[in-house]
């Protein structure tokens, strides 16, 4: 894969999957534009154009700094708040929806004219294995990510004629800062690994490679799909 001459926007690139994707695409020659609330020291080491952005707030002119043509958008923001259903306030359901769904809607509405000008572009969103595989204590995030999957398919259908592909990646538990509380002891990490048929948890690079493939010309015949990168958790026993 190579991305020389291609402009890619990554939202949520300061850490975790977004940072791993930025590092990979940077090495493959992409011109990167990254947006998040804060620029991490790790992200600052890469040659990117950084745009400060809180996706839960009105955007204003923040994304006006994007180039006239965008070849790809990756939307990575997410969270992990696992609690019994009866202890999740409605405000938390609303917050998860705003972060995962409405944030993506705002980014894509602001980017669509630029994507159309590419003559062939790709959007990658992120779901979760829990959106399709029922998991206890995942009610809020599974609800929001299921909406992301619906958005993925609807936009893929709407923009196919413009040669804009839209896909989602659905990971299981991944070794990122968001998952730190679930993996902060050897016992927790081992138990999480054993839940996966492949006997390990995901690494950010596992997801970065899939996202980069979907952005690349090698994925040019794939759209409207939700692709699991979950160690077999969603399909195997």
From TrEMBL:
EC number: 1.-.-.-
GO molecular function per UniProt: oxidoreductase activity
Broad enzyme group: oxidoreductase
InterPro entries according to UniProt: KR_dom, NAD(P)-bd_dom_sf, SDR_DHRS6-like, SDR_fam
Pfam families: adh_short_C2
Entries under Gene3D superfamilies matching the protein: NAD(P)-binding Rossmann-like Domain
Top-level taxon in the UniProt lineage: Bacteria
Keywords, sorted A to Z: Oxidoreductase
Keyword Oxidoreductase: yes
Domain Ketoreductase: 6-174
Similarity section: Belongs to the short-chain dehydrogenases/reductases (SDR) family.
Protein name: SDR family oxidoreductase
């Amino acid at each position: 894969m190579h991305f020389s001459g291609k402009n890619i926007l990554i939202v949520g690139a300061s850490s975790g999957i977004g940072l791993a994707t930025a590092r990979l695409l940077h090495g493959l020659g992409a011109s990167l534009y990254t947006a998040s609330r804060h620029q991490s020291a790790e992200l600052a080491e890469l040659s990117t154009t950084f745009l400060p952005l809180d996706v839960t707030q009105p955007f204003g002119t923040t994304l006006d700094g994007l180039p006239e043509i965008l070849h790809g958008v990756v939307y990575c923001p997410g969270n992990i708040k696992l609690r019994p259903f009866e202890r999740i306030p409605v405000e938390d359901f609303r917050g998860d929806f705003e972060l995962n769904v409405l944030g993506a809607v705002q980014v894509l509405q602001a980017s669509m004219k630029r994507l159309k000008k590419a003559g062939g572009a790709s959007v990658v969103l992120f779901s979760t294995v829990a959106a399709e595989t029922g998991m206890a204590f995942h009610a809020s995030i599974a609800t929001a990510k299921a909406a992301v999957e619906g958005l993925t398919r609807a936009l893929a259908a709407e923009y196919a004629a413009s040669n804009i592909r839209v896909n989602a990646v659905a990971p299981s538990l991944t070794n990122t800062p968001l998952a730190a509380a679930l993996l902060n002891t050897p016992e927790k990490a081992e138990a999480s690994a054993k839940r996966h048929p492949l006997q390990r948890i995901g690494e950010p690079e596992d997801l970065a490679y899939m996202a980069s493939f979907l952005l690349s010309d090698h994925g040019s015949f794939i759209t409207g799909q939700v692709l699991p990168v979950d160690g077999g958790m969603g399909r195997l026993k």
